[in-house]
User: Which sequence fits this backbone?
């Protein structure tokens, strides 16, 4: 298979990873700065720390989901059920709280619910490896949402803000900076470290590059996939808790579209949906690129639909850019 | 002499201009309206009425449509408006409670907040602009069903989203009225949700027709739903067999109404432009007048109408514009060009 030593898959990949994606993050960082400068120029209200962090906090709730989503994409996997998992976790939190369960315990229930949802996705996909993750999680997406709708119907469940410490989870700030932002940074560092500096992380890339090769090299492919799906669920449960603390009330139809936003930022960050490629910092920067671009355009009252279009166009343009430069090496992907 | 006359005239003009400028210098004020969603004709008419009044008063106006029909998308818009330090916000809420923290922050920043069309909870607003009392609307809809079905048979409600507070209030009030002995033979078989999306509403209508072959009437208290249901009935040539009524826009419903065998013999609505206008008058009065939105207050707006702040069903206050208006074969031609 590797007749030409310089065309060995790993060597080529390492080289392209280093040279292209170091520059890729640099480009994203430049885009991030450009957007901030543009926002500050077009709106006199942009550079106000308090308001800026109000906006940032609101997109961090879904931003958390992008972290484990990055892992799944690196694996060559995907999870479309994340928005529904957030909704179901938040629903259980609300229902248990309003049934008299102490808020601390209700949070644990939500986290457990998220973890279970992720575990179920993982179990189905690792037991029946021939199934496509996109189809299975499309199924659980409607399943989890459906359970949430069965529980709540058209009603909302709320009054969470009566518990003041729970309200503080989302709203408490150190100066202008929300604690949620610090937590986000810490978690991002941890996720980035694990992906890029541990054996586990390297193995995720190996699985995403070529699952069969990874398997024959002794990487516990299915175990790692199960871990990542379960982790995804746990983070969704967390996001559900943050959402509840933010809104103070929950309906079954919350968090719709989170899956696509999480996938978008990961892809903008340079993570390939076909697996094995990408770096974590890129995804994190992208959360802020998309979020702040939307906020800046919103400040000059650009129509919301137009903002979505602009973000869509940027996504396509940015994702196309490296593909024009580095044509993919001959097909090496097998499932 | 001629010079003197010219001078006097010129001075008078300057003085006149100055007086006009002084009487209404609201150019530093900005008022915003947040609708429930983009592409909702009813909401767009409300926004146009709001825009018209604010502009006439000489202030700036911002119209914002959320990216999705969710409270979350509306919160994003509210935060943007607070950051811009606008003067007043009118919002048609996608959720009764979820906007509370964002709107409270707006009010804490000195921004006047009213809700219109679909209320937000009393803690989140100074007052609510209500197109018509909940019970009056529910009564009109139930009576229409009773009348059109001849007092008995199966019927269904085709609503908007399951989370719209106005829809839910009307449906709850209708269910309450249906307990009356008079309506005992009206069998409400299902409440379907078309999400205020045309295609979804079409699909839901078709599902209703399939699931309930004896269905006699579809009552859609939403402009998107009633138009979609009427279209399906007309396309399937079921006029007269399954009757459509509810709340609809005359311009969209004219083709399904009128003389002969039509999908919708009559329906109700109020003037959404007036709802937007009233929200604008109320906000202007709150900023430049004495209005606080407290129970029992009243003010006379620039259109000469006196509005009274009354108690709302949710323990907050509201300004009710009037009872729902009936559109039928006799008047639809006149109204379809209005809105």
Assistant:
């Amino acid at each position: 298979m590797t007749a030409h030593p310089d065309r060995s898959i790993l060597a080529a990949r390492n080289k392209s990873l280093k040279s292209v994606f170091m520059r890729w993050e640099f480009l994203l960082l430049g885009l991030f700065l450009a957007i901030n400068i543009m926002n500050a120029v077009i709106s006199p209200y942009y550079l106000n720390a308090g308001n800026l962090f109000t906006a940032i906090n609101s997109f961090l709730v879904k931003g958390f989901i992008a972290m484990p989503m990055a892992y799944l994409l690196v694996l060559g996997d995907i999870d479309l059920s994340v928005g529904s998992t957030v909704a179901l976790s938040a629903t259980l939190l609300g229902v248990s709280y309003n049934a008299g369960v102490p808020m601390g315990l209700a949070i644990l229930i939500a986290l457990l619910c998220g973890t279970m949802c992720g575990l179920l996705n993982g179990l189905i996909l690792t037991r029946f490896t021939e199934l496509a993750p996109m189809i299975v999680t499309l199924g659980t997406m409607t399943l989890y949402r459906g359970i949430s709708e069965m529980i709540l119907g058209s009603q909302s469940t709320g009054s969470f803000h009566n518990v003041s410490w729970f309200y503080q989870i989302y709203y408490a700030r150190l100066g202008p900076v929300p604690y949620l932002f610090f937590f986000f940074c810490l978690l991002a560092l941890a996720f980035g470290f694990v992906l890029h500096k541990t054996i586990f992380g390297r193995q995720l890339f190996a699985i995403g590059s070529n699952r069969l090769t990874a398997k024959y090299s002794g990487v516990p492919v299915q175990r790692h996939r199960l871990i990542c799906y379960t982790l995804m669920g746990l983070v969704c449960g967390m996001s559900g808790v943050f959402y509840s603390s933010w809104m103070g009330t929950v309906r079954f139809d919350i968090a719709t579209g989170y899956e696509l936003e999480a996938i978008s930022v990961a892809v903008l960050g340079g993570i390939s949906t076909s697996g094995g490629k990408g770096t974590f910092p890129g995804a994190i920067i992208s959360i802020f690129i998309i979020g702040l671009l939307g906020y800046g355009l919103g400040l000059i009252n650009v129509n919301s639909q137009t903002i979505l279009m602009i973000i869509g166009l940027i996504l396509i343009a940015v994702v196309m850019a490296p593909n024009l430069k580095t044509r993919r090496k001959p097909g090496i992907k097998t499932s | 002499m001629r010079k003197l006359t010219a001078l006097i005239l010129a001075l008078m003009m300057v003085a006149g201009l100055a007086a006009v400028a002084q009487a209404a210098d609201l150019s530093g004020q900005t008022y915003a309206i947040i609708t429930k969603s983009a592409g909702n004709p009813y909401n767009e008419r409300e926004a146009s009425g709001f825009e018209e009044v604010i502009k006439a008063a000489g202030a700036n106006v911002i119209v914002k449509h959320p990216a999705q029909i969710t409270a979350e998308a509306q919160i994003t818009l509210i935060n943007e408006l607070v950051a811009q330090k606008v003067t007043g916000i009118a919002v048609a809420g996608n959720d009764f409670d979820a906007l509370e923290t964002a709107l409270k922050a707006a009010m804490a920043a000195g921004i006047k907040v009213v809700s219109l069309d679909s209320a937000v909870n009393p803690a989140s607003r100074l007052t609510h602009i209500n197109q018509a009392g909940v019970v009056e609307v529910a009564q009109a809809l139930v009576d229409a069903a009773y009348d059109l079905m001849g007092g008995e048979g199966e019927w269904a409600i085709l609503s908007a989203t399951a989370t719209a507070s106005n829809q839910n209030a009307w449906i709850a009030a209708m269910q309450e009225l249906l307990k009356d002995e008079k309506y005992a033979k009206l069998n409400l078989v299902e409440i379907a949700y078309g999400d205020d999306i045309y295609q979804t509403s079409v699909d839901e209508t078709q599902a209703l027709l399939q699931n309930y072959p004896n269905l006699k009437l579809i009552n859609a208290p939403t402009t998107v739903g009633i138009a979609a249901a009427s279209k399906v009935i007309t396309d399937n040539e079921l006029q007269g067999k399954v009757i459509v009524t509810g709340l609809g826009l005359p311009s969209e419903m004219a083709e399904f109404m009128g003389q002969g065998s039509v999908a919708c013999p009559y329906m109700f609505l109020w003037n959404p432009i007036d709802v937007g206008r009233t929200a604008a008058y109320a906000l202007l009065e709150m900023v430049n007048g004495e209005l606080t939105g407290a129970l029992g207050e009243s003010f006379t707006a620039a259109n000469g109408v006196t509005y009274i702040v009354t108690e709302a069903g949710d323990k907050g206050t509201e300004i009710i514009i009037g009872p729902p208006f009936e559109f039928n074969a006799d008047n639809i031609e006149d109204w379809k060009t209005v809105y």
Q: What stands out?
A: Chain B touches chain A at residues 38, 62, 64-68, 70-73, 75-77, 79-80, 82-85, 95-98, 100-101, 105, 161-163, 168, 193 (CB under 8 Å).
